[in-house]
Amino acid sequence: MRIKSAKFVISNSEISKCPQSSIPEYAFIGRSNVGKSSLINSLCDNKKLAKTSSRPGKTQLINHFLINENWYLVDLPGYGYARVSKTQKKIFQTFITKYFKYRTQLVNAFLLADIRHGPQPIDLKFMEWLGNNLIPFSIIFTKADKLSSKSIENNINDYKNSMLTSNWEEIPPIFITSAKNKSGNKEVLSYINQLNIDYFDKSSS
Ligand code: GTP
Ligand code: MG
To answer: Counting ligands in written order, which one lies closest to the CA of residue 40?
Structure first.
């Protein structure tokens, strides 16, 4: 699938104000600075679509981007950023939790993890929460341009092992990407394309 159009629609912290249509959407979640906004820009081939920064804590709201006029990419604030105040963390946590629990048109969450770091307890905890709430998710490793292919392979094996030892029976789909050189974009987009086809098939039957 090619992205022909990508438009910013709305930013907010209340799920009642998110777009009301029932078209499918895909949310990007993960630690602050992991590269969520950068990957959205890379997939859409537009460096200015989502705001990025080398400093963690840039994205602070739920951001909807309408893609090809018939599905949404959703950029969310990151978690795990130590410098965010306790109150702010609580606010993020509340609206992110509500987003995942009540946004019925969410087809899949993409949990982003920096390929350079081993499995982080906060990510494993978030995956467990997604699993407990029956929210389908996949893992996207980011910043692959920063590692050799051998190290990438080793780190992914570590990741898989630690998921299996945290009681996951099945490893979700895994993608390896770089927003810098666009590797992995094709795979992520064709996965979304397939999920969109299934979604529209189901809703028309
Ligand atoms: P928050 O909005 O704070 O949660 O962060 P985020 O996850 O949206 O990260 P963002 O996209 O703003 O990127 C953080 C930093 O990582 C920026 O300096 C990006 O240029 C850099 N970055 C993101 N993706 C990549 C990548 O694939 N390769 C490299 N080398 N740098 C990346
Ligand atoms: Mg961001």
So the answer is: 1
